[in-house]
Amino acid sequence: MLVAIVLAVGWIGLASTAAARPTLGDPRAVMVLLIMLAVVHVVLTVDGRRRDQVLLPVVGLLMGFSVLLMSRLPQDLVVQRFGSLELPLASVQLLWIGLSLAIAALIAVGLRNDLLLRSYKYTWAVAGIALLLLVFVLGQETNGARLTLRIGPFAGQPSELLKIILVIFLAAYLADNRALLAGRDSRLGPIRLPPLLYLLPMLVIWGLALATVVVQRDLGAALLFYGVFLLLLYVATQRRDLLAIGVVLFLAG
């Protein structure tokens, strides 16, 4: 309900600003999004398993902000054609949102536990590194940043998939090694460190983050990758010293 209220207020503000008078404008875009979110909510509720009650509303709010943003831009910036049907910018955004919600709901209902994700965590890690290397080698450079990979008629930024892969790998790795990272220590002078072998993923992620800055020239993605890693590390271990070491490593790099 709160998401619906926020998006409704945002839409009224957007439409009223564009018309220079109080108006609802054409609220179909926001209404379609809210209907899609309600359908996904019903599907997940009927499925009957306990799930995070915050995640879907937060995702829905972010999706709503994206629809508002796309609606205020010139609609001919992007036009997707399906035969005689032409979809302007905001409609294209809604199309991709609908597809993503459908895929997410299917995965949430079909994936009965996290065993598949945890058992193949290193496979996920290799897949993520392979995506990054593909962009390094075959990516297209736009405005000085190498972010886009084009295969035939399709183009996209593999870093978007890499964000998901990174969370899956790190969550599985930290869940399996939480006790060692949180409890056992070795010393480097006055500095307490977990066993050096278990620091290796930190060094790998540190290197990937720096490589993203240097090769792709994308500081935002690098900060996001590394920030997610440090956040998950702190949640798993509750150790502020590891958080501090991670920040120092990134700043030094």
Could you list some keywords that capture this structure?
two-stranded antiparallel sheet; 10 helices; mainly alpha; 253 residues; single chain; 3-stranded antiparallel beta sheet
Write a compact overview of the structure shown.
This protein is mainly alpha-helical and 253 residues long. The chain is built from ten helices and seven strands.
Question: Overview of this structure, please?
Answer:
There is one protein chain. The protein is mainly alpha-helical and 253 residues long. The protein contains ten helices and seven strands. The chain has helices at residues 2-19, 28-47, 55-72, 89-110, 115-119, 121-138, 159-183, 196-216, 219-237, 240-252; strands spanning 80-82, 85-87, 140-142, 145-151, 154-156, 186-188, 191-193. The strands form three sheets. Strands 3-4-5 form a three-stranded antiparallel β-sheet, with helices on one face. A two-stranded antiparallel sheet has the order 1-2. A two-stranded antiparallel ribbon has the order 6-7. Strand 6 and strand 7 form a beta hairpin. Helix 2 (28-47) runs antiparallel to helix 3 (55-72) and helix 9 (219-237) runs antiparallel to helix 10 (240-252). The longest helix has 25 residues, at 159-183. The N and C termini lie far apart (45 Å). 20% of the residues are buried.
What's the structural blueprint in terms of helices and strands?
Layout: H1 2-19, H2 28-47, H3 55-72, E1 80-82, E2 85-87, H4 89-110, H5 115-119, H6 121-138, E3 140-142, E4 145-151, E5 154-156, H7 159-183, E6 186-188, E7 191-193, H8 196-216, H9 219-237, H10 240-252
Antiparallel strand pairs: 1-2, 3-4, 4-5, 6-7
Helix pairs in contact: 1-3, 2-3, 2-4, 3-4, 6-7, 6-8, 7-9, 8-9, 9-10
